Amino acid sequence: MSKPVLPFTEANSKRIASLFRQSLRTAFDSSLKFDAYRNETIKIRAQFEANKHISDANELERVVAKAKEKLAEWAHPDPYTPPCRPGGTKYQRNIPVARGPLVPGDW
Q: pLDDT (tens digit, 9 = 90+) per residue, 38-58?
């Protein structure tokens, strides 16, 4: 098992912020309307705020593992992908024409 990250350090702050963003993305993938998404974000924020005081490294690891399990459970089978990102509907739709020689070699 890896060494637990101490609370209130920069590494832990980045890890928790990443977990928070993943939670928001997961909520966005599973909600169909903005008002439902907004209600979920408020609930997620309240859960993170409730655990803000944890100072024991072992308890922090337990809470983070529980949050990751919940994220895996709620993961959407077809998550939203922005159109121009890899895997999106417009990704590499209009690739620029190659300006180099079409046939390799010197003729």
A: 999 999 999 999 998 888 888
For residue 65, give Cα distances in angstroms to 7, 58, 59, 61, 71: 15, 11, 10, 6, 10
Residues of the chain scoring pLDDT < 50: none
Residue 107 lies in a domain: no
What is the pTM (predicted TM-score) of this model?
0.72
* Residues spanned by the domain of 68: 10-74
Q: CA 43 → CA 22, 30, 37, 98, distances in Å? A: 14, 14, 10, 50
